[in-house]
Amino acid sequence: MSSNEVQQENGQPLDTESEVQDTPAPPAIPFYTECSEAAQAELLNECEEQFAQLQMLQNEIILAEPDSDENPQEQSVNRLTAVAAELKQWQTIQPELLSTNPEVLLAVGAEELQKLNSQLELVLSCSQAKRDTLRETLKSEQKWLEEKKEVLRAGTEHVVKQRLENERLSEHSVLQDTKKKIQKMKDYRDRLMETLADVLEEHFPLPTQETNANKKKKNIPQELNENLISLNEILELLMNKTLETPHDPYILIDETFWPPYTEMLLRYGIALRHPEDCFKIRLETFY
């Protein structure tokens, strides 16, 4: 059942909004602004009597005031005592009505009821506005709830479908699929290594007797070591060392390393030298 409906005794829903709209407005309270001349005269006489009594009390207060020659501190104490006594007297006095005329009391009561009716109408208007706001909020929340239910239903169906598919797959098929993926990765790695070896062999060959002879012509004495390893082998040593012992990835530079290749690796940031041992290098971490 929606929040905009209530259940009747016969079991049929009733729309509260239509019920509020169909409810007739309360009858206007008559406002008796005019009284009879006798009532007005009586009320005027009572007001004059109260005013005369008030004036008499004011004169007595003026006459009872102490002289200005007294000490200001004593005056303050006396005033405080008088105010306290007056307060105590007012607390013991029972309030009395200004007039006992039923016609006057009816007019005053009607006026108070009119004011109260206006205040209640204002409260009713505010309550209706708040009700409309809450109704709109309820509609948006219900729409949001339906959307979330649809998402939950779709997610549940997907989970059930995946579970059924997983149950159909056996452990053997999963193992075979994993082996195939591993083999594909190995093949891909081998192809990359072969491509890298071809590139390095083509563009970074080992020094030959011819290159050594050219350097001798330039008055650069250099002996050629027959046990030099290629740049591809140097990189392979660095990668294997990093994978096998990541805690100690440095390799020792010996006479089989051609110095120009070692310097090139260090200069272009492919390899790093040991901070304490200049004869050790490691592969730079690219991950």
From TrEMBL:
UniProt entry tagged with the keyword Nucleus: yes
GO biological process terms on file: kinetochore assembly; mitotic sister chromatid segregation
Location(s) in or outside the cell: Chromosome, Centromere; Nucleus
The UniProt record lists the keyword Nucleus: yes
Stretches of the chain forming a coiled coil according to its record: 175-202
Alphabetical list of InterPro entries matching this protein: Centromere_CenpK (IPR020993)
Compositional bias (Polar residues): 1-15
Record keywords, A-Z: Centromere, Chromosome, Coiled coil, Nucleus
Chain spans, region Disordered: 1-30
One GO cellular component, as annotated: nucleus
Family: Belongs to the CENP-K/MCM22 family.
Protein name as catalogued: Centromere protein K
Organism: Coregonus suidteri
